[in-house]
Structures are given as C-alpha cells and as structure tokens.
Design brief:
With 333 residues, the chain is α/β, with parallel strands linked by helices. It is built from ten helices and 15 strands. The protein has a five-stranded mixed sheet with strand order 8-7-9-10-11, sandwiched between helices. The chain starts with a strand and ends in a 20-residue tail after the last helix.
Amino acid sequence: MFTDYDFELENICKTILKKKYGTVGLQFPEGLKRYAGRIAEHIERNCDVQVIISAEPCYGACDLDSGMGIDLLVHFGHSSIPSIKIDKPVLFIEVRSNLDVLKVVDKASRSLKGKLGLVTTVQHIDHLSIISTFLKKKGIGTVIGKGDDRIAYDGQVLGCNFSSATSILNEVDAYLFIGSGNFHPLGVALTTQKEVIAADPYSNEVRDIKKIKEKILRQRFGAIVRAENAKNFGILVGTKIGQRRWALARELNKLIKDHGKKALFLTMGNFDPSYLQSFDVDAWVSTACPRIAIDNYMRYEIPILTPVELKIVLNEMKWEEYKFDEILEPCEI
C-alpha cells in the first residue's frame, strides 16, 4: 500500500480487533497527513470501526489530541516519550522509513573528518547500526549516544531534547544527522557547539548546518535586543502533555519581578500569535515547545523569547553562554 514508510496497518487492525474498540482517532504530523485518507479507509474496511482524523497540527508525542471523543488514538510519526504517563489508550506508530540511507551517507562521508556522533529521528533509528558499520569500513569512527528518560532509542533526537548528542559530547569531533529538515540538526549544533552535517535521504542532499546556525543566532540576538527595554512580559505555558513546564514558568516569573518588571501567566494549546494581540505585553517568553520561538518568530509582532534568552535580557546570563532551550526536566501532568 505504501513504499516509503511502514505504517504498521496489520498491527493497528490487530490491536483494534483484539480490544474491540469502536471509534478510532488518527493523528498525523503535517508531512504524513497526505496518507490519512487511505489509512482511514483501510482501517474502516478491515476493522468495521468509525475512524476520525484529527486536523489539529501535531509536532510530537507530547502533542496528543485529547478532545476527539474516541476509544483509541493512533498517533503516527513519533515514538512514545518514556517519562510521560498517558491515562488513555494511545497506539504509537513510529512510521519507520524504508528509504536506502546509505546513498546519502556515502555522499556525506566525503566531507567527514574525525570521530562522529550519529543522531537521527525515529524514522531512521533502525539504520544507525548499519550506518555505523558502513562508515567504519571507510575508516570513520562513530559513537551512538544514550539519551535521558525522555528519549526512547539510542541516537534519537527530539525537537526539544538532544541528550543523545550531549551524552557523547566529549567523545566525538562532529555529528552526522540522518533525516529531513534543518531543525533537529540545528538543535544539535546549538546544543553541542560542534560541527553538524545533515544527510537527507529524501532529497539526497548533504548540508553543513553552520550557515543555518549563524543565521538563527543573528535572529535570536535581534529578538534579545528588541526585548531589552520590555517592562511587561507574558509567560506562555503550554497545556499539552509533555510541555507543561510550570516549575520553570514560576522561576521565570520570580526572576522577572526581582528585576522590577511585570509578568503575566498565559496558557495555550496551539500557539497562534493572533490569540495574543489584545494583551498589554512587551515581550513573550515561551516555556512550551522550543520550536515556537525559533520557527515562528516572524509571525509575532513583539519579541518571543526562550527561557535562556530571557535570562540574557535580564543580564542573568551572557550572550556568550547562549544555549538551545531543551525540555529536560519532568513536566507537570
């Protein structure tokens, strides 16, 4: 039915029939939504159930649609987060890629030097040992790190957690990221401060993340400068499971007020700047998904900062100490 990915349709139907679920919800990240119709049709035909598809944006396993009124949620494209306990039936379908990754890895190997840390998303996690063996034959040493309890697999990185990369920081000279997009390798580069090469098996493109990193740092420095005269801060707290960093939000609230400024707590599920236009605020501070401030900064009329950037604004940290925001602490359920 599909060639690029494994959607585990047999496993899904087996689970539905065994548990006798009646209404099943499907949730996809943007890149996989084009498959939703065919998957829904297959499940309805083979399981005799009602299928409902979530149209909400979805960015990770922390981003489960809880308002669908269903018996089972089938969540595609992400692995479960081991540290998060879920009290409703959720079946995580990781959607492993069937692409041959060695072609682009071979292309990347021509510019690789020293010992490499291998990192990827869950789609290509099965390929890391194959890649390691392949590079070893070319005389390139590799290390695959183990992440914290938010990470399901060795070598896996999330958009909010790069502990698999930092765990081997002192063992490697650079990192090779296998996968699509720039955000994950950018996060590795900003977190580790080491060279990162991205090998994209979908486009067969090899990218050095250095220029992208420099561009993002200029943007972030600009946001910090724009927020230097802010007097009223809005602290944004995500309501999605795995993003509720209330302890951090309270810490930042105290810090802001200790500096003689004002702060408001605001909660949001899906972050949309149009929801925030009516508030009397000079700058936002997002404690939710780290991608919000980085990916969507152009959509906000006033600066939106990460917690680290707020501390730089308040002279609690220096720009030279800049680091990427990660979710490393337990989140409140």
